């Protein structure tokens, strides 16, 4: 099966077919190239998707990823990022192993095809030239034969004519001989050209064309084999990343299996535990018996026409902290607005973050120092003085971060050192209450009390309990005169006072101040004789009377 023998007369069709074969190669290259673009685009979209749902650094969202379910989701995002990387690998391998190689091969095939068909056209032109020479010699032989016949006939005519001179007859005879010789020469030339053409034609159809077509056939078969190999490589490129993609999927499954609802429940406790104990029972107040009253300065009671509203009920104390958290003012830098246990955690977290930043800056300083040493030893690599400014800047950053860390460490030490001593403070404050009975209540009963430095006296130690003498509210409200106003205040924000001891205010409203903030973040105000209670200090702007300040 040879194109040279079977397709000896299909030069033009073979030229079209081989061009079509090259077009097929280029079409396949284009297909693979578009596939690589799709893989890259898909990988980019997967990476963007993974990045979009990654927790933002130093945000509340990052804290949520302590939970096992969120950790599993984060692992899924990371695995998807790796998954995207495998699609990038597919794109890179298709480009390097198929597109680049095939593109070079196409150029080689084009050049080879051009050379083969150039040789074919050259052979065609040669045989055509031989054919033209043969035709020319044939026509000349034919013409000379006719001329010789006419010259012979003219001689015979002249020789038969008695009126023609002997000289004219001789001239005719010579002319006939010349024409006859010319015919013989043309015959020899024609015969020679014919033999030559037949030889060239045999070589053309049995040697030159078969050899050229054989080379073209081999070129075309190599093209077909190369296309098949490229298709196998196409599949192998995908097959190579399947194990890694499987590992990514296994990682997602493993992450899902690591979710532990019990751990997440415990983390919720750790995240929101205030450290307070639940309030004790409220004692029955017998209004039928005269009782000695003792009024606490910091009580949350409301005077409503002789009606007493207990300040230390379980409902009110259980909801004071949420109000503080909803404070629209800026949170204090030392987290003093948080319950003790939560404050300690926040401070510890801040100290850890600062220490990490310090370590990072120190590593950077060490790297710059090493680079400077390299520059000193090899000046051609760079100017050592160019790094002095960066070294100074990094050293200043380290010093600034260390001062910041020391500040938070001091606050942390203060919190950790103060917690055990607060029970004694609470006991001293409990002396404000002078009552008939002295039942023991939990630390939360004194959560509204403030220490002299303005920090909260909430107690989360499970070992210590504060004994507070219960107040008899009946006499307190029966005999107490309304507290005088010591100034006014303007509400900066709307506050819904839904808990016992609080009062709701509307933004822009003006009210009377009857008790200043004792350091616990609450101010006692009055709207009229019947409505008074506590609001967050940051929700109001206080204007104290000058006389009240002097007193």
UniProtKB/TrEMBL annotation:
Q: Which residues form the F-BAR domain?
A: 1-264
Q: Where is the SH3 domain?
A: 484-545
What Gene3D superfamilies does the database record attribute to this sequence? 6.10.140.470, Arfaptin homology (AH) domain/BAR domain, SH3 Domains
Which chain positions lie within coiled-coil regions?
Answer: 344-371
For molecular function, the Gene Ontology terms on record are: lipid binding
Cell compartments where the protein resides: Cell membrane; Cytoplasm, Cell cortex; Cytoplasm, Cytoskeleton
Q: What is its main location?
A: membrane
Which Gene Ontology terms describe the biological processes this protein takes part in? endocytosis; signal transduction
Which protein family is named in the record?
A: Belongs to the FNBP1 family.
For this entry, the protein name equals Formin binding protein 1
Please report the organism this UniProt entry assigns to the protein.
Answer: Molossus molossus
